Structure formats: structure tokens, C-alpha cells
Amino acid sequence: MSILELANIMNHDLGNSIALLTRTPATLNALLRGLPDERTLSNEGEHTWSVLDIVGHLIHCERTDWMPRAKWLLDFGESRPFGPFDRWGHVRESQGKPLPKLLDEFAAIRAENLVELRAMNLRPEDLSRRGLHPALGPVTLSELLAAWAAHDLNHIHQMSRVMARQYREAVGPFRQYMGVMQCAAHGG
Amino acid sequence: MSILELANIMNHDLGNSIALLTRTPATLNALLRGLPDERTLSNEGEHTWSVLDIVGHLIHCERTDWMPRAKWLLDFGESRPFGPFDRWGHVRESQGKPLPKLLDEFAAIRAENLVELRAMNLRPEDLSRRGLHPALGPVTLSELLAAWAAHDLNHIHQMSRVMARQYREAVGPFRQYMGVMQCAAHGG
Fold first, then answer.
1. Which residue would you say has higher pLDDT here, B47 or B160?
2. Most buried one in A162, B25, B37, B74, CB count within 10 A?
3. What is the CB neighbour count within 10 angstroms for residue A16?
């Protein structure tokens, strides 16, 4: 184990990540449920995501990314890379579904995954185990689980930007005071 | 009234802004209440804000910025500029208060302000009235109220970034996939 990996593990409090992961469905409910379609279906331009797309993506990640990869890592270590992740995989799955239904789906599958994570009773020696990411190379279980939690924050950040964009004209000269209006997407 | 101001008013749905303003206290409760101090007191470096500072700032704005300025605008039009806003005014007010208390204060004062806003029964001709911002110059009531709603999103954006920063090391190589980790503060 490299010093960098060890430092990353020392920097990671799994209990805190579980706490963050637990609260995201309620955060999204408060922020989004009941908003009119014109707010939740509009995106930032071609090949960008609406709020509805982002919730669909979070569901897709619960199904195919974080927990499946955590289990894969524990089963195969670095001997077999994780399967590829389809960044547009949510499109087919969430097509035609209204946002409240997606929020319900997200809450349900997140809760299931957290039950499973807790039941794994991970010890420090598990968290230091490595798997093989198809693009990033070796990653520890600790890094993968920390990324799961940070990924929620990444997409709350993105949603607030997508929603703020809809206020770009309405706020007039106040625009220059708002960092969110200057935020380039940084690829997500 | 300029064409630009008219376009900005046409772009603004006050009902939607009220809906956004109404849901922010619940969003912050879901996102923040119960997090340990080490998460809510850490900032992005010197002269930057923690999550607790941001909630304090939102309270300070409810007290001294948006609604007081809206009333000032209706009373004085462009004849007298709004008083200056103290960007660090929350520091004294929120000093030593725990986050749950600040979240309660924010929910209470936001609710009061929204009762008052609704009672003003603003008509399109009110929304097109102008006041004088001490730095930005003339602004319409519509722009001021739209900025109030967008300002919430601006600070949800900021909070998600401040919290994600705490995961910078723990996520290891996943960092490069997360736009929030690349987000410069854009001044807020």
C-alpha cells in the first residue's frame, strides 16, 4: 500500500460518508419535489443534463456503479477491472418517468444499498483493499466509497447551477454577484 | 423602462421564486442538520466561509437585504439608494451559535418574510418599479426578487463545494471526475 493511499484512507471517515449518503434523498426531495416541469426538464444546452437527468443518473449509479463495484473489488481485487460505466445509461431507464417517481426510486435503492453496505461491516483492512478501475487504474475501497459520497455533493452542486441558470436573465445586474452564474460546468 | 428590463421581468415568474424561497429551509435542514462540527465549521481557506458562515449570511440577508430593500424600493424608488450591505455582517450575529439554532432562525425569518411578501400582493406594475442599488445602479423590483431566489441556489452551490472539498484527498484518483472539485469559488 502506497503512502498516498494510506493518507487517503486516514482522511476518510466512513461513518461520515454513510451519514452524507443517507441524507441525500431527503435533500433532493426538499429541493426538487413539486417543481414544475419547465424547471426540472431544462438543461444547460446540448449534451448537458436537466435536473431530471441528474436524478436518473444517481439512480443508475446506485444500480451499476458504487455498490456493484465495491462488491466486485472485494471479490476480484485487482485481478479483473470493474465493468465500464455508461454515463448516458440513465437516459433509457428514466425516459418518460416523472420526477416524483424518480425521487422515490432513488430513495428506495439508496436505502437498500446502505443496508447492504452496513451489513458488510467493513474493517480498516477491507477499506485498504484495491480494485482496478477501467480508466483510473488501482483504487482502494476507501477511495471508492468516499467518491460515492462526494459524488452526491458533486451533483447537488450541478443541480443548483442548472436551476440558477434559469435565473440568468431575470436577476439582471445582480448576475455579477453570483458565483454560480459564472460556474463553468467543469465536466459535471 | 428599458427593453432589457422588460425582458428580465418577462423572464421572471414570481410564483416560482416564492416556491424556491419556500423550500430552501427544508433543503438546508436535510443537507446539514446533525452534521458534526468538523464538517460545518471548516472553510475553503482564509477569508472564505464555512457552511455555518453561509447559513449565518442567509439569515443576515433576510434581516437586512432582500425584503428591507424591496420595501425601500417601493417607498423611495430611485430617489434614495439602498443602504450598504455588510458581507461580513453575519459574523457577529452568528458567533457562538450552533448550526441547528441558525437553521431554526433561518426557517423562522424566511417564513416571516414570505408572509410579508405575499401580503404585498405585487402586480406587474409594481415589479417594474425601480430602486437604486448603491453599486449596481438602477434595479427593478422584479430583478431584486429574482436575485433573492437565485441567491439561495448560489449558496447551495457554495455549500456543496465547501463540503466536497473535505473529500478532496479521501476520493483519491476519482477527484478528476468531479466538477465540484475543480470549481473555483467565483467569488461566492
1. B160
2. A162
3. 18
Distance between CA atoms of residues A4 and A26, nearest Å: 34
Q: How far apart are CA A110 and CA A23, in angstroms?
A: 10
Q: Is the pLDDT of residue B79 over 60?
A: yes
Strand B130-133 and strand B137-140: the pairing is antiparallel
CB of A15 within 8 Å of a chain B CB? The answer is: no
pLDDT of residue A185: 65
Give the residue from B22, B25, B19, B60 showing the smallest Cα distance to B156: B25
Q: Residue B131 carries which side chain, given as an amino acid letter?
A: G
CB A110 within 8 A of CB A152: no
| Calpha distance B90→B88 (Å, rounded) | 6
Quickly count helices (H) and strands (E) in chain B. 10, 2
CB pairs under 8 A between A and B: 195
Nearest CA to CA, how far is B60 from chain A (Å)? 16
pTM assigned to the model: 0.95
pLDDT in tens, A64-93: 999 999 999 999 999 999 988 787 887 778
**Residue with the three cell numbers 478532496:** B168
Neighbouring residues of B111: CB distance < 8 A, sequence distance ≥ 6: B25
ipTM for the predicted complex = 0.94
Write down the mean pLDDT value for chain B: 93
Q: Tell me, what's the pLDDT at A161?
A: 96
B 111-150 → A contacts, CB under 8 A: 133, 136-137, 139-140, 142-144, 146-147, 149-150
Does B177 sit within 8 Å of A158, measured CB to CB? Answer: no
Q: In the predicted model, what is the mean pLDDT of residues A27-37?
A: 95
